[in-house]
Design brief:
With 313 residues, the protein is of the alpha/beta class. The chain has 12 helices and 9 strands. The longest helix has 27 residues.
């Protein structure tokens, strides 16, 4: 049956959190949705919890993987059965505020040139506490500037996004050879459509020490560098090395560049990316000013950290 929004919620052994996530979707002010919950071979109480929810609300669809097949394949499985005009994501250990889906649908219907819209989130800890300024992403960008930040880091929180389903299918869904599957998807979508973010916080992101990103941080970091390399190569229209991608990865995370050669290469790369970006994208004067300031900030921070490290020896 055709529906307006398909919410895809994968889960693996998240029985202690999943009720909160499901309840946050069932409490949405927008009611025209299907909630596709994909149990990826959980061995905890997840299956029993989902069975109870299916009896409560006919909008819930539960699919069980007999064994764990991993997040990316599970997401594609959900996408293959989704019927919505729009596809939204929800993680099992996070939750959304009641107006999230309604606001995102409204935005996409009012902005047909936008293919994906995310929201900001509060980042919470084990005790449900968040620092007053602990919001991600830290600043709101216009659609014309989001591809710039995607050259350095993912920008969006995965479980806040809503995408037009036809565009997801057009790019082939999630790539199974990318551990940072969300980051890779944003970059590929940015080549065929514009991406946007709502300025308000419409969810909470739990930094789960047992979550995928924390358990597989090294592999995710390596995947991010490959995605940065591909994004840089596409913008510069020339092959970029993984070593150059590593430099951009480091400065985005305020990590220290280890050698003077890396610092020099950083200056060259940022200048090349800045020039190529201005040539490719039609920016308003205010957006150009932001880009220039952002470039200066990135370079200044990289230099400061590098020189501080040199002085410490």
């Amino acid at each position: 049956m055709k529906t307006l929004v398909s919410v895809i919620l994968p889960t693996f052994n998240m029985g202690m959190y999943i009720s909160r996530a499901i309840d946050s979707i069932l409490s949405q002010t927008l009611e025209d949705f299907e909630l596709i919950v994909l149990n990826d071979g959980s061995s905890d109480q997840t299956a029993d919890i989902l069975a109870a929810y299916v009896q409560q609300d006919q909008r819930i669809v539960v699919l069980h993987n007999p064994k764990n097949i991993g997040l990316t394949q599970t997401l594609n499985k959900g996408l293959n059965v989704a019927q919505g005009t729009y596809v939204a994501r929800q993680d099992a250990d996070n939750y959304s505020t009641p107006t999230r889906l309604a606001e995102q649908v409204c935005y996409l219907e009012q902005h047909p040139h936008i293919g994906l819209v995310g929201t900001r989130v509060f980042v919470i800890d084990d005790h449900e506490q968040t620092a007053s300024n602990d919001i991600y992403p830290y600043f709101v960008l216009t659609p014309a500037l989001i591809p710039w930040e995607l050259l350095f880091y993912p920008y969006f929180s995965h479980d806040t996004i809503m995408v037009r389903r036809d565009l997801l299918l057009q790019v082939g869904g999630y790539r199974v050879d990318r551990i940072a599957e969300d980051y890779d998807l944003w970059c590929r979508l940015s080549r065929i459509t514009q991406l946007a973010i709502l300025p308000d916080v419409r969810g909470c992101l739990y930094r789960n020490p047992e979550g995928f990103s924390q358990k597989f941080a090294d592999a995710q970091n390596q995947s991010c560098k490959q995605i940065i390399r591909d994004a840089m190569s596409e913008l510069l229209t020339e092959s970029v090395s993984l070593a150059d991608a590593h430099i951009m990865f480091q400065i985005a995370r305020t990590a220290v560049l280890s050698t003077a050669d890396e610092m020099h290469r950083c200056e060259i790369l940022l200048s090349q990316l800045h020039t190529a970006y201005l040539n490719k994208f039609a920016l308003a004067e205010q957006e150009k000013a932001f880009l220039e300031a952002n470039l200066v900030n990135k370079l200044s921070m990289a230099k400061m950290l590098f020189h501080a490290t040199q002085l410490s020896f």
